[in-house]
Specification:
heterodimer; A: mainly alpha; ABC transporter involved in vitamin B12 uptake, BtuC; two-stranded antiparallel ribbon; two-stranded antiparallel sheet; 14 helices; B: alpha/beta; Rossmann fold; six-stranded mixed β-sheet; five-stranded antiparallel β-sheet; 11 strands; 24% strand
Chain lengths: 320, 253
């Protein structure tokens, strides 16, 4: 059963990633850039889903991780003259640190209290960025463009703003996240995380110290989100507080709910649909959030498990 | 009769507001065989075993397992020490397959033999084949072969209880606490379960919480009777049957 499920999921995800790879050759410029953005945001949502979908912890503070990764990368490059690659590594380490500090406080609570604590942490982080605006450039944010060294691949020089680089780096990030998530979720460790989602106290009584496992999931989730933030900053050359705001914490929750909580491809699908939906509606009306809200309400009524969740239940039980 | 004390509680008390659920209990459990706790509803049986397995914190008193003070140990740690509890109301992972349910239990015992830190112990060092082996062994032992891929909540109730026992056994307990295992089962299922418990007790110490007197007198070598949070009698089944206080408070009604 497991092997079959592994085989199918490899086929499916491999297929989707190959299609995404091939799409870059046929997409017009506008959609090319949109899909790059979607892949980065979807990576963020995959990180979010790792905590919500596979471990059962709902957070409203993930913008903190995203912006922590983004700002540590940006400020590292700006103040410390790091190369882009070192900036990424720096943000990776910084995200781990932030997640660990956050986890050791927030995981003392559970359920609604956990939600509130994550919200508070997220807001505190956002306000600190504004408070230290001399150092962080506050509301205005800053552009990284001129501080980024160009990239050398096979002796040729590329800029990070080059559409091809943008697209393929975003795809690479997505690929890495999908691989790591698949690997963990099909390992015995993933089984324990799912058990915690299903019934935490029972898992404790099977002899597992659930705190460690939740802590691990949170660090993975936070680090995924942070590195996605850093990639976003790197590829779009802009660091700003919009990415630390509360709505940027809620977005991955909505994308994940739409696409399917606890499914691997749900976050990607949800992010893509929502992105194009907003894109499409905002051309017609300024009040696009109204329509988005309506779609979400209908969604919750008819497909409470999200698109991929419903597909899995109805047709493809092996879907990861 | 074996006389090594496996488990000992000392002045165990648990209060819920004004209600004293377990009152100054000194409970001894000896190595070997089946020990049963009986008593009317609300006598404090389930609270006592909750205290023993660490789901509930005692208001006062201490508990020793194999001579070691485990009062401040978490419930997870106690499972690792060998005290395993199976639930009165089945508490399996209903949305997961039976295989996953037992595997969760199996992989912890396999993992414990591994050295190293959190990551190396948890990431893939236990081979799935080994888990598969153990899972089918444990399912076979409780008579549930072939249900691996079924979703646990779709099993008939009696089989869910057996699955719960299989999960308990897969934890490789030294003391298996069965909380009302026969509750809600049909007569034929009860007979099977009695056979199974007797078989288990050959290698594992069993602490049985039970309402069904037939089952208790059929299985247990040692019986403790509780009422109003205290132990009112202890002894062999026949001693208990003759005890007049027990007859008054329990068997009589």
């Amino acid at each position: 059963m497991r092997k079959k499920s592994l085989f199918y999921s490899l086929m499916l995800h491999g297929g989707i990633l190959i299609i995404l790879f091939l799409l870059q050759f046929i997409l017009p410029a506008y959609h090319h850039s949109s899909v790059s953005k979607i892949m980065i945001l979807a990576s963020y949502a995959i990180g979010y889903n790792f905590l919500l979908g596979y471990t059962g912890l709902m957070s409203l503070g993930h913008a903190m991780f995203f912006s922590a990764g983004m700002y540590s990368m940006g400020l590292g490059i700006y103040y410390l003259d790091l190369s882009p690659m070192n900036g990424l590594i720096f943000s990776f380490l910084f995200s781990i640190l932030v997640s660990m500090i956050f986890g050791s406080f927030a995981l003392r609570t559970s359920g609604v209290s956990f939600l509130i604590v994550t919200l508070m942490f997220g807001q505190t982080f956002y306000l600190s960025i504004l408070y230290f605006s001399e150092f962080t450039f506050g509301h205005d944010g800053f552009s990284l463009g001129k501080y980024l060294e160009p990239l050398f691949i096979f002796g040729k020089e590329y800029l990070f703003s080059d559409p091809g680089i943008r697209y393929n780096f975003a795809l690479l990030l997505l690929l890495i996240y999908v691989l790591i998530t698949t690997f963990i979720m099909l390992s015995p460790l993933g089984r324990i995380l799912i058990a915690i989602r299903e019934n935490e106290s029972r898992t404790q009584l099977l002899g597992y110290n659930v705190f460690y496992y939740k802590f691990f999931a949170l660090v993975v989730s936070g680090t995924f989100s942070g590195v996605a933030g850093a990639m976003h900053g790197l590829l779009f050359s802009y660091i700003g507080t919009t990415f630390a705001e509360i709505h940027h914490s809620i977005s991955p929750l909505l994308w994940t709910l739409l696409g399917g909580v606890g499914t691997l491809m749900g976050p990607l699908l949800g992010t893509g649909i929502m992105y194009y939906l907003i894109d499409f509606i905002s051309e017609i009306t300024k009040n696009y959030l109204l329509i988005v809200g309506l779609v979400l309400i209908l969604m919750i009524i008819w497909f409470p498990m999200g698109i991929m969740g419903t597909v899995r239940k109805k047709w493809f039980k092996w879907l990861p | 009769m074996a006389t090594i004390k496996l488990l000992r509680t000392q002045n165990f008390t648990r209060q819920y507001g004004g209600l004293i659920a377990v009152n100054d209990v000194n409970f001894n459990l000896f190595e070997g065989g089946i020990h049963a706790i009986i008593g009317p509803n609300g006598a404090g049986k389930t609270t006592l075993v909750s205290l023993i397995c660490g789901r509930t914190i005692p208001s006062s008193g201490r508990i020793y397992f194999k001579g070691k003070d485990i009062t401040s140990m978490s419930s997870a740690k106690r499972v690792q020490e060998g005290i395993v509890y199976t639930f009165q109301v089945t508490s399996i992972f209903g949305n997961l397959s039976c295989y996953e349910n037992v595997a969760l239990s199996v992989q912890r015992t396999l993992k414990e033999n591994l050295k190293g830190n959190f990551l190396s112990r948890n990431l893939g060092l236990v081979s799935e084949n080994e888990i598969e082996n153990e899972v089918s062994k444990n399912l076979l032992r409780v008579g549930l072969e072939g249900v691996e891929s079924q979703i646990a909540s779709t099993l008939p109730y009696g089989h869910q209880k057996l699955l719960e026992v299989a999960m308990g056994l897969a934890s490789r307990p030294e003391l298996l606490i069965l909380d009302e295992p026969t509750q809600g089962l049909a007569e034929s299922e009860i007979n099977n379960l009695i056979q199974l418990i007797r078989d288990i007790s050959k290698s594992v110490n069993v602490l049985l919480i039970e309402h069904n007197m037939g089952v208790v007198f059929n299985l247990a070598e040692h019986v403790t009777v509780m009422n109003n949070g205290s132990i009112i009698a202890e002894g062999t089944p026949s001693e208990i049957e003759e005890n007049s206080e027990v007859q008054d408070t329990y068997l009589g009604c």
